Amino acid sequence: KGASRLLRILISESAHLIWAIRCDITINGTIHSAKTIRSRWTTTINKRLQNDRLTARKINRTKTFENLITATWSDTISANGLIPKNWATALEVLVGIIPPRPSTNEETR
Asked: What predicted TM-score, i.e. pTM, was given to this entire model?
């Protein structure tokens, strides 16, 4: 159940980002570099992870939902499969996906 939920999240968030970038290109004529797109995608997925954690901590505080969040994100945030107990509702920061750093000579948006 967690893997199919993660797939739905990745597809919908990626499709929305593609749409937003295409609108930006069409309306503003902005050209995005691969690094910028990668950074925006990583930020989008990290925000979704944090939204799930916030929902588990503040809105839907059931063990079932916490287990669903864990099943969805555990392989993504941990390379070795080990994550802290109750990470979905804990307040500390998780270190998982490392966002790419822009080079110093590349123009930032």
From this structure: 0.73
Distance CA 12, CA 6 (A): 10
CA separation for the pair 39, 4 (Å, rounded): 24
Tell me the per-residue pLDDT of 38-79, one tens digit each, with 9 for 90 and over: 999 999 998 998 888 888 888 888 888 888 888 888 888 876
Cα dihedral 73/102/19/8 (nearest 10): -10
Q: Is 13 exposed, middle or buried (0-12, 13-18, 19+ CB in 10 A)?
A: middle
Phi/psi of residue 89, nearest 5 degrees: -110, -5
Enter the tokens of residue 11.
């597809």
In the numeric block, which tokens belong to residue 71? 């099943």
